[in-house]
Amino acid sequence: MGKDRKVIVLLSGGLDSAVCLYWALDKGYKCAALNISYGQRHEKETFYAHALCKKRKVKLTKIKINLPWLEGATSLVGKNAVIPDEPLKKIKSAGRIPSTYVPARNLIFMSLAASMADSTGAQKIIAGPNAIDFSGYPDCRPQFYKPLEKVFKEGTRAGACGKEIKIITPLIKMSKTQIVRLAVKLGVPFNMTWSCYSGGKKPCGKCDACKLRAEGFKKAGIKDICR
Which of 87, 94, 113, 160 is deepest in the core (most CB within 10 A)? Predict the structure, then answer.
């Protein structure tokens, strides 16, 4: 297997990232997974990321980063933060970004993944952002990822040597329903994924992630065994 088949998969442990891992494996890529903890309210996603990698025999690198300025800047970080139960349509129609947005999170994640790729010889990064059924985060849109490839080309050893680090976002233009159907086709174990922003025993059913996931399964006509 050539070096061009080595990829870094950003794996949170959520549904979309799990689909990306299984998609990459189905394509025959040699995967290394990267899970990043940034101080979020719970570690359940990380637990499932580990479980998925163990199941598929994929090496997982887990790192923790300390971003103290996030507390108070997002409802996903901080003990006193409150995750809102507000319709996404209302937020979007008002032109607001949800409080669950984590400032520049995907920029940080992609930079770390690029460092890992540049260090290990991987020439692709696979990530699961979605710009169709999403919360309106600016760093989940195609126009955010396209310029990053140019940045990586100019600012990495791989790029300087003529081996560009490509970014693959297979789900970015898919609806959540399409993602659920793809997950079924690929054999993704739904009970080994976690989407809820809260860290309870069961998904809260009220946060953006829960609502988007539930709607996707409902429209796909498939039962979510995680709920």
Answer: 113
The pLDDT tens digits for 192-206 are: 999 999 878 899 998
Q: Using the 8-state DSSP alphabet, how is residue 17 labeled? A: H
* CA atoms of 56 and 48, how far apart (whole Å): 12
CB 131 within 8 A of CB 141: yes
Q: Report the C-alpha gap between 200 and 183 in whole angstroms.
A: 24
pTM over 0.90: yes
Domains by residue range for the chain, with CATH = 3-220 (3.40.50.620)
Contact 197, 100 (CB under 8 A): yes
Helix (H) or strand (E) holding 124: strand 124-126
The Cα 14–Cα 11 span in angstroms is 8
Residue 44's φ and ψ, nearest 5 degrees, are -65, -40
Sign of the alpha-carbon torsion through 197, 35, 213, 168: positive
Q: How far apart are CA 203 and CA 209, in angstroms?
A: 10
Residues 6+ apart with CB under 8 A from 3: 121, 122, 123
Count, in order, helices (H) and strands (E) of the chain: 8, 5
Per DSSP, the residues of 142-188 read HHHHHHHHHHHHHHSHHHHTT---EEE-TTTT--HHHHHHHHHHHT-
CA distances to 47, 61, 81, 129, 201 from 32, in Å:
17, 8, 33, 18, 29
Residue 95 has a pLDDT of 66
